[in-house]
């Protein structure tokens, strides 16, 4: 016991090692009762995150990670939520320290190595591309490997551009984990990150054990369509139909989006014709249109600046028994503002609120509207949308204030820009000071008064001779024009 107290005096605490103030923080009870003291968990998670940062510094502390955690967190009662929060607050370069923390909590503090405890650690390590540490943890705690951990591992491998390693991880799984859920997770991860061919080969490889269902076929078709491989997507749709399955509506919408994107790239004028052909094929196979189908069509029409066609399609959605979703409204509002149809954009925003999608008009959406309006030099309406955002309870951020201050200054509205800057300071938003040049188009040009120049004597004599010459020539009889034979 006396050795532990001696080490506590000699070694720095994790808060001071992470760059905290020199004054010691008041002690707090380290318990996990969220009902009586809700702020204690946050403080404990912050202390764990600071300890992870201290262990990841260069040079590291003299003690081992296990001894360091035992010294400072010997009375912690860990939970999965506490571990996940500490990892979320930790600095970026703390991958190996996070693995050491998990080992300490399991071995010293009786944390059960379950799937819910290992999943955030694997996600934390894989985001930093530390896959050797992930493999070491899985080999050390094989019983903790479950669906959540496997999904996080496969998703991060595919996101890091390692589809072969993801397939290898699936092949090396034990028999009880190689089920349809694991295959679906593998196919979903590879298809979402642009590797549908690897996903298809993996699904065909284990087809005798796990026969692909409608969900897996839909994921494969969507993966090929999102990757721009239209031929493979159509081939897979045909194979699925011949196999007695019908891909989901999401797969058909993804293929329709692929058709529109390819037409936009090669020949935008043929997009409507090719999309109509595919829609006829959908109806022939008994696949009805839904809100996602119209969203795909309206989005692609807006991207080629056919706003009027998109509005006509929006008005005809009721003929198929469909109602627009929040994304469709947002796309149309942006397109109407981009086309300088300001009043129609405001009306569409009102319709969106009436349809029950007012919660989707968040700070990010309003910033997008303000950015478009400032891009087409409609600063007055951008300020109106800015006030509307504040009126609905959305606090503007640094980007909104900075953009409006810059545009108001360029439009020679310095007083309003200064008032907006003072408002940002009062709200606690740190707006960086900058020098903005006023656009010449908005500067009133001063009219220069013409000052009559005083002529010199030679100039006066020259003008006088010209006047006299004109006067003499006025008395000379001019010849008549003769008719030519």
Automatic annotation (TrEMBL):
Superkingdom field: Eukaryota
Stretches with biased composition (Low complexity): 13-23
PPR repeats: 213-247, 290-324, 362-396
Signal peptide: none
Alphabetized UniProt keyword annotations: Repeat, Transit peptide
Annotated region (Disordered), positions in chain: 13-40
The keyword Repeat appears for this protein: yes
Acetylation as UniProt keyword: no
Alphabetical list of PANTHER family matching this protein: PENTATRICOPEPTIDE REPEAT-CONTAINING PROTEIN 3, MITOCHONDRIAL (PTHR47941)
Family: Belongs to the PPR family. P subfamily.
Protein's recorded name: Pentatricopeptide repeat-containing protein PNM1, mitochondrial
């Amino acid at each position: 016991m006396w050795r532990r107290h001696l080490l506590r005096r000699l070694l720095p605490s994790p808060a001071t090692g992470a760059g905290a103030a020199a004054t010691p923080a008041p002690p707090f009870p380290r318990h996990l009762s969220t009902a009586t003291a809700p702020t204690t968990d946050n403080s404990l998670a912050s202390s764990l995150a600071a300890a992870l940062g201290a262990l990841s510094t260069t040079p590291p502390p003299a003690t081992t990670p296990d001894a360091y955690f035992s010294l400072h967190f010997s009375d912690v009662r860990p939970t999965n939520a506490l571990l996940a929060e500490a990892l979320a607050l930790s600095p970026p370069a703390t991958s190996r320290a996070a693995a050491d923390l998990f080992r300490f909590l399991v071995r010293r503090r009786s944390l059960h190595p379950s799937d819910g405890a290992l999943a955030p650690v694997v996600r934390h390590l894989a985001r930093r591309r530390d896959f050797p540490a992930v493999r070491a943890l899985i080999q050390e705690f094989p019983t903790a490997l479950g669906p959540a951990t496997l999904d996080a591992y496969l998703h991060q491998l595919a996101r890091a551009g390692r589809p072969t390693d993801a397939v290898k991880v699936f092949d090396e799984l034990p028999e009880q984990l190689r089920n349809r859920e694991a295959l679906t997770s593998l196919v979903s991860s590879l298809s979402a990150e642009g590797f549908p061919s690897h996903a298809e080969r993996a699904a065909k490889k284990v087809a005798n054990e796990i026969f692909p269902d409608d969900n897996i076929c839909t994921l494969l078709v969507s993966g090929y369509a999102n990757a721009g491989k239209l031929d493979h997507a159509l081939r897979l749709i045909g194979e699925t139909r011949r196999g007695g399955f019908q891909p989901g509506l999401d797969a058909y919408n993804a293929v329709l989006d692929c058709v529109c994107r390819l037409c936009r790239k090669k020949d935008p004028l043929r997009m409507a014709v090719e999309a109509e052909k595919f829609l006829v094929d959908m109806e022939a196979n008994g696949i009805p249109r839904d809100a996602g189908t119209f969203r795909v069509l309206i989005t692609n029409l807006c991207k080629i600046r056919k706003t009027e066609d998109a509005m006509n399609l929006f008005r005809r959605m009721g003929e198929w028994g469909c109602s627009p979703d929040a994304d469709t409204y947002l796309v149309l509002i942006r397109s109407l503002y981009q086309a300088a149809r300001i009043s129609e954009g405001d009306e569409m925003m009102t319709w969106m609120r009436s349809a029950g999608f007012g919660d989707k008009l968040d700070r990010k959406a309003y910033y997008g509207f303000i950015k478009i309006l400032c891009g087409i030099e409609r600063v007055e309406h951008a300020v109106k949308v800015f006030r509307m955002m504040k009126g609905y309870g959305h606090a503007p951020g640094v980007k909104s204030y900075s953009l409006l201050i810059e545009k108001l200054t360029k439009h020679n509205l310095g007083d309003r820009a200064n008032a907006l800057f003072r408002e940002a300071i009062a709200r606690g938003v740190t707006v960086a000071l900058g020098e903005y040049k006023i656009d010449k188009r908005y500067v009133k040009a001063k009219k220069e008064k013409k000052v009559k120049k005083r002529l010199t004597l030679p100039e006066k004599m020259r003008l006088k001779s010209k006047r006299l010459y004109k006067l003499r020539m006025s008395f000379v009889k001019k010849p008549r024009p003769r008719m030519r034979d």
